[in-house]
Request: fold
Amino acid sequence: MATNLNVNGTSYQVDLPDDVPLLWVLRDEVGLTGTKFGCGVAACGACTVHIDGEAVRSCQVALSDVWGDVTTIEGLGTPDSMAKIQQAWVDHQVAQCGYCQSGQIMQAAALLAENSSPTDADIDDAMQGNLCRCGTYPRIRAAIHDAASKLKEA
Amino acid sequence: MASVGKILRRTFLIGSAAIVGGVAFGAYYVTRPAANPLKPAKGETALSPFILIDQQGVTLFAPRAEMGQGVMTTWAALIAEELDVEMDDIRVLHGPAAAAYYNSALVGEGLPNKGYDISDFQHNLGEALGVLGKTLSLQVTGGSTSMKDGFERMREAGATARETLKQAAADRLGVDRAQLKTEAGVVIAPDGTRIPYTELAEAAGRIDPPHAELRDPSDWRLLGQNLPRVDIVGKTTGTAEYGIDVRPEGLKFASVRMNPKLGGAMNSFNASAAQSMPGVEMVVDLGNGVAVVATNTWLAIQAVEAIDVDWADAPYPSETDDLFATIAQAFEDAPNSTMRDDGDVDVLPDGATEITAEYRVPYLAHSTMEPMNATALFTGTKLDLWCGNQAPTLLQIRAANTANLDKEAVEVHTTYLGGGFGRRGELDFAEIATKVAMAMPNVPVQTTWSREEDMRHDFYRPGALARMRGAVKDGAAVLIDGKVAAQSCTQQAVERYTGMPGGGPDKVLVEGLFNQPYAVPNYRISGHIADLDVPVGFWRSVGNSHNGFFHETFMDEMAHAAGRDPLEFRLELAKAEFAPAAGVLQAVKEMSGWTGQTPDGVGRGVAMTYSFGTPVAQVIEVVDEDGTIRIAKAWIACDVGLALDPGTVKAQMVGGMIYGLSAAVTGEITFSDGEVEQYNFPDYDALRMHNAPLTEVRVLETNPRLGGVGEPGTPPSLPALGNALFDLTGERARTLPLINQFNLLV
Reply:
C-alpha cells in the first residue's frame, strides 16, 4: 500500500512496508542522499531531518509514523542558494570528511529556530547527540554563534 | 645505485598529450611513453593527467583520497600556484586508478631512520626508493605523505603546463615566450591582449613541453594561505557524493554478514526465513559469509540478520585476557627489531635512580562515520566499482582477481570518503561488493554494512604492551630502555595486499618510541611481534598511537622521579637533539601560560611526539567539577616546516587530537567467545560537542623538512591527557581507556 509523504515541499507516493525507517525511504526510494546513515540506533545524529520543523533521527521514524512535512538538508538550501546557517558553515570551513554535517546542520537549524541566541551550554545540550569523528566541534560551535547573529540581522 | 638514479630521473617525467579540443599534462608510469599517451598500444604507457584543459575549462586531478584532510584543495593549489589559475574557476577531480599516481613519499617513509636526523643523502635515497611506490602501483593515501609526495611534482606539472600554453601563445602572436605573462587562466601579451588558456589548449597539445623553473616561495599567492576548500559547498548542502550515495541506473541494495569470529569459516546457513522477507531479491553465499540483495538497504539489513548461520571458531584465543597473555609472551622472544641502541643501557649510571613501568593499550576500531560500503556493476567482461578508498590501484587488482578479469577491465570510481583514518586503505569492502555484484550480473548493486558489521569487522589498531625502564640523574634522563609488544599490522597488511608473508624489521611497531628527539645517552628500543591472527591494520598515526602514549607517559614518570617540571624536563632534552621539537614545547609553554602550578581542582599535562616528520606538543587541562572530570582546554603547537594551508593544518591538528582523546577516554575493542563485544556507538563512543576541549593551535615553520599533518596531532593527545589526570589526582594512568580508572565526563 502506497504511503503519501511530503518532502521538501514535494509529494511522494512511496510503496514500501510501514516499518521502513524514514532514513531509508529518503535515501533509497525518494533518492535524497544528503541525509546520511551512521548507526541506525539514534546514537550519531547523521540522519537528522525535520518533521514539521522538529529535529528527529530519521533512522528511528517508521514510514507509517511520519506525522508531518519532512525537510532534509536538500530542502534547507542549495549550492546556489544556501540557507544562512549553511553560509555560516561555509564561512567557518566547518566540514572535513563532511559525512556528519547534514545532520549537524539540521540539528543546529532546529536549535536556532527555538533559541535565537544560544549560549555555549545551550549548544552543548542541543548538539551532543551529533557525532563527528573528524572533530569539527570548535568550528560547528563558531558557525552556530555566527549564524545566530546573521539571522538576527535579517 | 646508478640504476636507481636513472629510474629516479625518469620518474619525474612530466609529459603532455593532445586531446579532443585541448591538452592534458601529466605523468608517465614507466619510461617509454606511448605515441598516443591517452590511448597507449601494448607495451606503451598511458599519461595520467594532472591537468586537463579544453574549451570547457581547466580541470585538475588530485588522485589522493579526500577523507576530510583537505588534500584535494591543497593538491590543486600546488598545481594552480604555478599554472596561474584561480581556485574558483577550476574543477578538481579525483581521477581514475592509475599507476602513474603512485605515492613516492610513502616508500621513503619506510627507511629505518629516525626521520628528524636524516642527511640529504638519506633524503634522496628515500626519494629514489619512492620509485618502488611506482612499480608497486602504490596509489595510496596514507602515512601523512600527500604533500611530501606532491609538493615538487605538482608544482612542476603546473609550471610545465603554463610554459607550454605560453609557447602556444608566443607562436600565435609571433613573439618570444619570455615576453608573455600569465594570470587567472589567461596569457597576457606585451600589448595587453589576453588569450584564455582554453583557446590555446588545442595548439598546446601539439607542442613539446619546454623546461619550466619553479617560482620562489616568496612569489606564491595561493600556497601558504587559508584557501576555501573545494569540497566545502557540496559537504554543506548534502550534495557531495560519498560511496554510499552513488545511484547508478537500476541500482539494487545489499547488506552483508561475515563471521564475527574474525577470519573463521562459515559451516552452513539457512536463509529460508530471509528469502520470503519483503523486498528481498537474492541471498548470496559468499563462501565465508552471506549477503542479501533487496530493493532497499534497510530491508536487506533486516533479511541478512534473519539468516541463521553456523560460524566456525576464530583462529585466535577467544577472550581479551588470553590475547594479552599472548602479547605479553612476545617479550620472551628475541626482538623483531632494535632500531635504537645508543650507549649502554645494561649498566645503570653511577648515582642514577632507576624506574620502571608497564603500560597497556587496547585494540581500537577506526569507526568512520560512513559505514563500509561499495557499489559494483559486473557485466562478465567488465567491472565498475564505486567507493571511497585510500588505495584505488590495489583495490583494482583485488577486484580484478576476485572477478577473474584483467586489471584493465576494472574501473574504480573514487568518491569522497566519509572518514578513512586508515580503514579505507583495506580492500575487503570492495571485494565483498564485487562478489555480491557477480551474483547479479548487469545490475549495479550497492553493498552497505550495518554499523554493527562495520564495528565488529575492522582491521583494528593492535592492542599493545610496553615495558619501560629508565634512569634519571641530576634532574635529567640518562637512560631509556623500552620494549613494545603487539601484533605487526605491517606484516599482516603486506600479506593481505600481496598474498606473501611480510617479514623483516617492522618500523611501524616501534615508531613513536625509537625515534623520539630527546638527547638521552643510553637509549634502546626494541619491538616484539605477537603472533596472533586478530585482523589488525593502520589506524590514524599507526604505531605512534600506542608508542606516543608509552613514551610520553614514561617521560612524565621520569620527570616526576627526577623532581623536575615535566615540560622543562622535556624541553632540555629536546633542545640538545632537535630544535623544532624544543620549539613546539616552548610554544605550548607560552600559549598555556605554563608555570608548573595549577589551582586545586585543575590538572595540566604535557606531551610531545615526533611523527610523520612533524613534532607536535600538546598541553591539556582537566577540571574537577563536583567529582566529574572535564577535559576543559588544550593547546597544540606543531612544526610542519611549511604550512601549505595553515587553516587545514590547524583543522587536522585539532581533529587528530580529538580522535586520540576519544580513544583515550572510552575507546576499547574487547573480545569474548572470539567476537568483538562492541556493536555500535553506544559501546564505542567518541568525544562530542559537550566534552571536547576549547583548543588553541600554533603552527610553526622552522622544521627543515616538510612534515605530515593528518596524523601527528593524534599521538601526544593520549599521554597529555593521562599526565593531566596524574597532575589532578596523583594517580598515574598506565592503561587505556581512562574511563575505567577516572570519572571523566562522557
